[in-house]
Amino acid sequence: MKIRSAGAKVRRRPGRVRDMNWIREHKFISFLVLVIILAAGFLIFAVFTGGGSTGAGALGGTVFGKITEPVARLGQNISGVFSAGSLREKNEELSRRNRELQEENRKLRLREDDTQDLEALKKALRYKGGSDTEQLISGDVTAMNDSRWIRTFTINLGKEDGVKTGSVVVNGDGLVGTVKSAGRGWAKVSTILDSSRGISFCLEDSRKTMGILHVSTDGELEGYMLDESAKVRAGDTLVTSGMGVYPERITVGKVKKVTNDEEEKLKRITVETAVQFDGLRKVAVLL
């Protein structure tokens, strides 16, 4: 038989050491387990002693309530935390979906605006669709000059799109002008208020009633009728005659004023342009 000396160290079992270390590291969980065990014990004791009808049962119920109350509150708090987290996730999801719907709505409005602009362009050109769609290309205005009258501006179409110097430019309201210069991805447009060349026109209701328009020194569009006896009045719509650089029947504007020049035997007119140049957003170039 082996006899252990008094000074010899007691060898501890590894399993017990690990258990003690785990308990020390998880004090809260250990305490919670202990509370649950004690509560269960009191509950069993209260049941077997007649519940709340005896002093022991009442004591057990009271003690059980005191022990389980903090545990119940802890459970409620934990449930509240998870519930709040779930609500935050739902709110974030709703916010994300709302942003997506707003973006989709914006894109739909843009597509609707583009469709309306293109339909207006077709109307201005008496465009019927079909095999000639490649003769019309639309683009956006990217820059305006800052003069009193809008005489020139830049668009996002260029040589690679078939745009060249002299190309005619229109929008949904009517005649805009011609391309002054073009490069890759851009073109500068000279409006009819900047052009020194005359515009040959006729009345919308009478192609035989013709005249010439030019830009006055104060930036207005004015002109005269080729026939002094021509019947023209304020409010009449003028369109291009097809003579010169502009195709026929593009709206130019409406007559504002008619005067008779007795000295030169001419019927002079002042015209309000169909295009509002300070609000240009989209144009089309005839290729």
TrEMBL record:
Q: Which ranges carry the Rod shape-determining protein MreC beta-barrel core domain? A: 141-286
For this UniProt record, the keywords arranged alphabetically read as follows: Cell shape, Coiled coil
Q: Does the keyword Coiled coil apply?
A: yes
Q: Which Gene3D superfamilies match?
A: Rod shape-determining protein MreC, domain 1, Rod shape-determining protein MreC, domain 2
Q: Which domain of life is it from?
A: Bacteria
Query: What InterPro entries does this protein's entry cite?
Result: Cell/Rod_1, Cell/Rod_MreC_2, MreC, MreC_beta-barrel_core
Q: Which GO terms describe its biological process?
A: regulation of cell shape
What does the protein in this record do?
A: Involved in formation and maintenance of cell shape.
Query: Which family is this sequence assigned to?
Result: Belongs to the MreC family.
Q: What is this protein called?
A: Cell shape-determining protein MreC
Species name = Eubacterium pyruvativorans
